[in-house]
Amino acid sequence: MVKTLDNILPKEFVDKKKQELENGKRYIVEPEDIIEAEFLMKFGWSAYWDLHPEKNRTLGITGNEMTRLLMAGRKIDAQKMYRDAQTAFIGSASAQSKKPSQTFNSATRKIVKNAEPDNG
What we know:
Blueprint: H1 11-23, H2 31-43, H3 46-51, H4 63-96, H5 100-115
């Protein structure tokens, strides 16, 4: 049975994680990281190589790159959980109101507006 990360993860990744734990620092997720991760989640892994044609595809990605994308993906997951919670709240609040349909329409007006194409 594997007892440490050293035996299953790339050395570069393990060393970075150890350093972060020792220094008390955590990876800072930039807005660009989130946009890139969302793009990759929607269009697949091959889109990574379209975004980074300068990188050698045969070498794969580094541990730092993997960490960057995973941390950004976790932010996207948290955003989705928040949207799901809002959805549940809107449904619950609408069902308990005196005018459920009107409450629902009022609560979702901004969502509907954001879903429409821009008329620019």
